[in-house]
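Posting for a labmate who doesn't have an account.
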Amino acid sequence: MSKQKSLILLKMLMGILNFAILTFLAVIILYTIGMVRATYTARSFLNHITYLPMNPVKTVIVMYVALFTLVAIINLRQQSENSILNQTIYILEVILCCVYMEYKGIIFLVIADIVVLIRDKTSQKVFLVIMGLIYIFADYDIISLGIKMVSFRELLNVYTVRQHMLMTGILNFFSSVNAIAFIAYMIIYMRSQIKEKERVTILNKQLAEANVQLSEMNNQLKDYAAMQKQMGEIEERNRIAREIHDTLGHTMTGLS
């Protein structure tokens, strides 16, 4: 029970961390574009980026809509017992975690949410492979080949080196804490699975021993039944013998 609570707390922590990171990214995006506009340094800014940035407000709205939709469907799935609906929600969760092109921490939250619910080992392995591939290819240098987007690193070029290092350090710190929380989550989950497997093995062993004892008791019961039958036959023979003896004795007495 304590491990289950630990898993819930760690998943909540990951949710809070991801919300904090996305909020930090949203603030940086809005503030940077606003500063570029206010200081009339758009030309210099555009010279340092690969593509034209999207509307920052739309970008932030998409980020939060995707996040809140993800949280909503997770809660919906927890209340649903329909397997088809749950599988659809799993697919939606995987799709939504791909919205955040450069930030990959959401993938950890989706893995932590779904992996516990997949009971089939083969399906679980397939899911982890798919999420691993998504994590590998959800990289700006790869995605930017097909999708025109401005990276977080390019946005920071308008700041001083000290400010750049500070913002990058803050992002890396929260991302690292999120990764550590995910690793702790998976360790606790795997340990609970091992404990559960050991418990099932012990129960199966106890069941096998109980079956052996039951088989022995059944054999003893059969032997007892056979003995009871034999004793019944002996008693019946003795009764018949007594009746013959008594009848013969009375007859002989009568004849005498």
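Reply:
Got it, the structure tokens are right above this. The mean pLDDT is 80.
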